[in-house]
Amino acid sequence: MSTPARRRKDRLEVRLTAESKALLAMAAAAENKSISAYLLDAGLAAAAAALADLAKVTISSDGYSAFLRALDAPPAPKPRLDRLLNTPSVLD
């Protein structure tokens, strides 16, 4: 995830061990980034993932009923999948 090209004026400080800093420096170098850019990209990606897990979906009563019917319905036949699963492989 690349950060926007806007001017950044806010700062964030982190206290860490020398070992942690060395590990972050190696990872940043492996991605050809500064430690700050590496931490910002990784932190924003982690924040987006954490917040995505909290997303709330709202659905109407009719929509929910349709969703439950779809879940309870038997799966549609898939002849190609049946053929694939019932054909002996070259390893048999």
Account of the 3D structure:
This protein is mostly helical. The protein has a domain at 18-52. The protein contains four helices and no strands. The longest helix has 18 residues, at 35-52. It is flat and about 55 Å long. The mean pLDDT is 92.
User: How big is the Rg?
Assistant: 24 Å
The helix content is: 55-70%
Give the CA-CA distance, first to last residue: 44 Å
| Average pLDDT taken over every residue | 92
Low-confidence stretches: none
Order of helices and strands: HHHH
Proportion of β residues? under 5%
Choose one word for the global shape. flat
Count every helix, treating DSSP H or I runs of 4 or more residues as helices: 4
The total strand number stands at 0
Keywords summarizing the entry:
single chain, 92 residues, mainly alpha, flat
